[in-house]
Amino acid sequence: MPFAKITQTAHYVPDNIVSNDDLAKIMDTSDEWIYSRTGIKQRHITVDENTSDLAAKVGEQLLLQADLSADQIDFIIVATISPDSSMPSTAALVQAKIGAHRAFAYDLTAACSGFVFALSTAEKLIAGGYTRGMVIGAEVLSKSLDWSDRSTAVLFGDGAGGVLLENTGTKPLIIAEHLRTDGSRGNSLTSNHLELQPELLGRSKPVAEFIKMDGRAIFDFAVRDVPKNIQETLEKASLKPEDIDYFLLHQANSRILDKMAKKLGAERSKFLQNMQDYGNTSAASIPILLSEAVKNGKLSLDRNSKIVQTGFGGGLTWGTLIVNL
Ligand code: ACO
């Protein structure tokens, strides 16, 4: 059976930076409140690029780095909760933008767990016989935010990151995995609900649905269910936290990372962090973190490192992959 390997990583964020102080000018908040509760200092907010534009930039970069032409790509999966449209999918738009005519392409919706769910899926596509694919997490969450709601508007940002996956591995890419969903708790984090035909039923037209969140419930979910999930996945692989080079967790909140490290008995310094620069970019947060770590030399794609990738968010969804780089 062919083994998948991550052969390239890349990320792209829009140029426009919005600091906490900038937000304090348009809503009742402060850098002190935001930074002390979340670890976020700034976020990138797009002015004229949509989700498929950010994702296509990542796709082009992956091709350039790998010295491949677009028609050598078999599939493109884009994990996103902020697609340009329901139809065509963001992945289809990316396929056209980068000219990957041979690739089949689709979006995967699992909120902040999206990249982890997509990488798991893509690994199975490679095992099934495909040669090469792209897995991209891309979000323009700024278009789903209610800028008058300070409790959510300060948390999120726009960006994209992704990997090139090829069938050139000499060992399994994913040593162990554990993906979970609990739809019964879905109401604690919602966005873009589509109402039944209001005019036809004589109801007033509903206002657009922005991201809504029960912050406390999500915080509790993150610090209770998620470390348990990581622990169970480590046990499946007969590994201990000290066997892991780095933990790449969804970048929602630095206090969540502090609690996770404590619960797992793992060194906090092994939990990579960049939400100070980007805010919470949902499905893009883990691939941006990975791409940055490869770029700054913390991680190499050829050093036989073991990393934990854990996503958690709307659905509710959560899941861990233990990955051999
Ligand atoms: N600036 C200033 N004050 C604010 C802001 C803000 N941006 N937002 C809320 N407040 C106020 C509230 O109005 C409230 O005031 P009150 O006491 O007068 O009513 C006070 O601050 C405390 O509000 P809480 O919501 O209780 O604040 P909390 O300490 O729980 O922190 C936070 C909120 C940071 C969202 C926290 O609940 C959290 O970290 N939750 C985890 C959820 C998360 O990170 N979600 C990201 C998306 S989901 C995901 O990616 C998994």
UniProtKB/TrEMBL annotation:
Its EC number is 2.3.1.180. It catalyses: malonyl-[ACP] + acetyl-CoA + H(+) = 3-oxobutanoyl-[ACP] + CO2 + CoA. Its main location: cytoplasm. Residues 234-324 form the Beta-ketoacyl-[acyl-carrier-protein] synthase III C-terminal domain. SUPFAM superfamilies: Thiolase-like (SSF53901). Transmembrane segments: none annotated. It comes from the Bacteria. Pathway: Lipid metabolism; fatty acid biosynthesis. Residues 106-183 form the Beta-ketoacyl-[acyl-carrier-protein] synthase III N-terminal domain. The active site is at 112, 250, 280. Keywords: Acyltransferase, Cytoplasm, Fatty acid biosynthesis, Fatty acid metabolism, Lipid biosynthesis, Lipid metabolism, Multifunctional enzyme, Transferase. GO terms for molecular function: beta-ketoacyl-acyl-carrier-protein synthase III activity. InterPro entries: ACP_syn_III_C, ACP_syn_III_N, FabH, Thiolase-like. Residues 251-255 are annotated as: ACP-binding. Gene3D superfamilies: 3.40.47.10. Signal peptide: none annotated. It holds the Pfam family ACP_syn_III_C. It is found in: Cytoplasm. The last Arg residue of the ACP-binding site is essential for the weak association between ACP/AcpP and FabH. Catalyzes the condensation reaction of fatty acid synthesis by the addition to an acyl acceptor of two carbons from malonyl-ACP. Catalyzes the first condensation reaction which initiates fatty acid synthesis and may therefore play a role in governing the total rate of fatty acid production. Possesses both acetoacetyl-ACP synthase and acetyl transacylase activities. Its substrate specificity determines the biosynthesis of branched-chain and/or straight-chain of fatty acids. Belongs to the thiolase-like superfamily. FabH family. Homodimer. NCBIfam families: fabH, PRK09352.1. HAMAP family: FabH. This is Beta-ketoacyl-[acyl-carrier-protein] synthase III. It comes from Lactococcus ileimucosae.
